[in-house]
């Protein structure tokens, strides 16, 4: 069976078809008025489903005699039924299923070192003493969760929610807490060499916490308590510690350049020896007036090197 258009007068659709061995094949050619585009291909009907296959696309200045390329025969059972569309429900997210399995394991055994728990909801969970060292908890919800004495060494908690979470005496050394929403209790916690860059917290408690070598750049801690904390060699550049307490904290060798709102903080008895204290909101004179402060060898605003406290430290 075949049909042809009538010369230049036919500028519609030209279709040729063959039927061999029960297979349905159709060769087709679309011809446009200006003769600039032609598509050649086949449609194959298999079990009621129709497939459209483009074999060739031709660009031509001619309107007639466009080449037709036939497709190779496709073996399929003949069917006269109308094309059908098959739909299926979306498959379950494998990551979500895996998180649920690991979450159940963690809550039952409190052991999940190295687990991928990204985005998991552990709000209010009792994870005292849990082992989550090197685990991936990126974006996890840990608000009001109890992780006292937990092992989180090297864990990834980037952008996690830690609001009112308890991390008392927890090991968070070398952990990634970049951009976390804090506001938790980190009393006596080990955060040495941890990355807290860009963290945002309110009423955090870091009393006696070890933050030596930690990255606290660009943090915003409102009314936080760092009293008696170890912040030796910590990087606090461009941080904001409005109404926070650094009383008796050890910040020797720390970098506080461009820190703002330190004028509202409690610095009584803090150790800033050999630290860079060129903060935005205080002058060298303001700092030297703080009761019990140690500024021995510290670089103060105006690039002043202080000797205050050197006698007390035997230097």
Features:
four-stranded antiparallel β-sheet; mainly beta; two-stranded parallel sheet
Q: What is Rg?
A: 35 Å
Count helical runs.
2
Outline: elongated
Task: Give the N-terminus to C-terminus distance in angstroms.
Answer: 106 Å
Query: Approximately what portion of the residues adopt beta-strand conformation?
Result: 5-15%
Strand tally: 8
Give the structural class. mainly beta
Q: Helicity level, as a percent range? A: under 10%
Main sheet characteristics: 4 strands, antiparallel
Question: Averaging pLDDT over every residue, what do you get?
Answer: 81
Can you tell me the residue ranges where pLDDT is under 50 for at least 5 consecutive residues? 1-40, 42-47, 49-80, 85-89
How do the strands and helices of this protein lay out in sequence?
Blueprint: E1 13-20, E2 23-30, E3 38-46, E4 49-58, H1 94-109, E5 200-202, E6 220-222, H2 284-288, E7 299-300, E8 304-305
Parallel strand pairs: 5-6
Antiparallel strand pairs: 1-2, 2-3, 3-4, 7-8
Question: Would you give an account of this structure?
Answer:
- The chain is mainly beta and 315 residues long.
- The chain has a domain at 11-85.
- Helices cover 7% and strands 14% of the residues.
- The strands form three sheets. The protein has a four-stranded antiparallel beta sheet, with no helix packed on it.
- It is elongated.
- The N and C termini lie far apart (106 Å).
